[in-house]
Amino acid sequence: MSSAAEQEAVQRARAVGRGRSAEETTASAAVAGRNGGRGARTPQAPPRTVWPGAPTPLGARFRVGPDGVAGTNFALWAGGAEAVELCLFDEEAGGDGAGNGGGGRLVETRCPLTELTHEIWHGFLPGVLPGQRYGFRVHGRWDPWTGARFNPAKLLLDPYARAVDAGAGNDYGTLPPEVYGHVRDWPQQQVADTVRDDRDSAAYVPKGVVVHDDAPDDEWCDDRRPKTPWADSVIYELHVRGFTMRHPDVPAELRGTYAGLAHPAAVEHLVRLGVTAVELLPVHQFAHEDHLLRRGLRNYWGYNSIGYFAPHAAYAAGGTRGQQVGEFRRMVRALHEAGIEVILDVVYNHTAEAGELGPMLSLKGIDNRGYYRLQGDARRYADYTGCGNTLHVVQPHVLRLITDSLRYWVTEMGVDGFRFDLAAALARSFHDVDMLSPFLAVIAQDPVLRRVKLIAEPWDVGSGGYQVGAFPPLWTEWNDRYRGAVRDFWRGALPDVRDLGYRLSGSSDLYAWGGRRPYASVNFVTAHDGFTLRDLVTYERKHNEANGEGNRDGSDDNRSWNCGVEGETADADVRALRRRQLRNLMTTLLLSTGVPMLVAGDEMGRTQRGSNNAYCQDNEVSWVDWEVRDEPGWRALFDLTARLIALRHRHPVLRRRAFFSGRAHSADGLRDLAWFTARGTEMTEADWYAPAATLGMYLSGRDIPGRDARGAPVADDSFLAVLHAADRPVDFVLPGPPWAAAYEVLVDTCLEEQGEAPGALLAAGAAVTIAARSVLVLRAVPGEGGS
């Protein structure tokens, strides 16, 4: 070998043409005399026979090969690679099989994949059966200045792995320096990412698991799916782990797992509530960030994906050697049997590998330039996500990875739709957000994906990333303008009621174009990121100290009101006011046109103790507290929520499939949507611009656009909802004919127990007193001509 001085001279000569600094050059040259060969290495077994196999499908697929021999075909796209090794891991005799930092060890067998077809490295290994753990080592240039970061010392997770075995304790372990492609602790951090780390990472990283690809049976046929129309949907956002971790009726060994969510006690709550779909926070295999692990925390939400085909192993009760796949499917089947759809929150905008200083777990080592968006300085990543990297969705193989993953979850795992985190990042072409981008075009023409529910989080953190109302007709969107308007109204911060009127009636100003419908708007007051509903009326300031970031994390724009006292209090009047505000917010949400989304536990007063960013709180701060459901005040909130959802299901006027016109459709002048002042008169242009804290909304059930399944016209009752956010009562004059001859009280949020409200009849034209900060929901009783 040449001397270290000679190697440094060569490195400096090469650097001249690349414009590297002397500091960067010295760092790269130091690799030669540094840690090559040091650190724990996995014991190796002799190579095994590798047959040519096939380049498709990608990933590891168990099948019967030539001459009827059972085995597994492996295929990996690695465009810039010079060589690829398949690495098989088997338990060492006498070990416990944990491998990844556990007490025993795994024996590694390296098998070169010599077949290369269209940049796909492939081979068939006879005798490799389901349950086999594996990974890849990819050889190529280490040249961070051009974006090349190949490092065969790092074991890489197959991006198509259908199950992941993290090993004993590794899911919540640490990120040792060996899992980085560069020397993480290099003294000169500004160039640390250029110094290759040659220590073996196999003992510390998760492995893929070969899974038996059972053909989908009758349980996944479309006739078993609920197929709830968008307009009829009520979404319930929940966390698989957090929903059952404290559930007393779920067996302890099943809490926090897919099996726990499938347990009858969990499903029964969803059925009683009346929701039609659960939206699961990320269940793709994800990793924990180093900065959290160093503080003794972990990523709870899961927005840090590393395996787009694999159910997160830590949520499996039955094992992680492929058992998680069947357990997830059984969970989906149990929910479907209860009439509940399953929507996955998916994170295809970035991965857990972060930026140039992040770990090397999969795509970064397979082909960094091929998978990620890089800046002009190819050492750096384009970051439209705030998480260090952005997947380069314009690239055909990246687009294929995402769409293959989506189709897999639909066709083989049984899910019914997806909510796309930071969807604007996926819609970017080379820089700008483009609604004709390859990703959106592929989804629109895909015969599987265009049939499922597609929800966009319509923004990212890049320039021009806020795209609420801009996604094409197949898509619905999280409507954060709804969230802002409703919060502001009930805390008394809206200057007038113009924006509120749009939000209550389907946000036609945002979505009435291109054939879109009112259900393009997913209406929500709370979501996983931010205050819970209870905290929204209990805190005005975030309290994220437990995250260890000096309370700097989390939004400061909470639009909350604490009812005069910060935090929990024993003051009975304040507590009563807070519960009333909760009833107001829940009633507003479930009467609004569009698709309502609730967050798990909001229906029974879940609190996060003032945290509005509990992403790393895998503890009682985030887990649903089931004990509160037996407390009278919170039981009453649950009952009201279930009652409002049932009202919504019974009445098509509350879940319209077309926007209101606001015009009269008959000679009596009755409009499909009308707005009233407290004087009982219809709102004028001046009224919309005047300061107001009271708004009457009349929804006519006559002549609802569309027909039922038999072609008959759809007709329904008519309703009047009076929303009053002021701190003093107001006399509201109920509109007379043709709107109604009388009104029946259905909900009055000034009452703790709604059993006292229904049935009372109020005369049309009479003035009724609306309590301070309350909602009155009335059914219009028609006169002789009908209303």
Automatic annotation (TrEMBL):
CDD domains: AmyAc_Glg_debranch, E_set_GDE_Isoamylase_N. Residues 237-648 form the Glycosyl hydrolase family 13 catalytic domain. Residues 544-559 have a biased composition (Basic and acidic residues). Residues 1-56, 544-564 are annotated as: Disordered. SMART domains: Aamy. SUPFAM superfamilies: (Trans)glycosidases, E set domains, Glycosyl hydrolase domain. Keywords: Glycosidase, Hydrolase. Residues 1-33 have a biased composition (Low complexity). NCBIfam families: glgX_debranch. Belongs to the glycosyl hydrolase 13 family. This is Glycogen operon protein GlgX homolog.
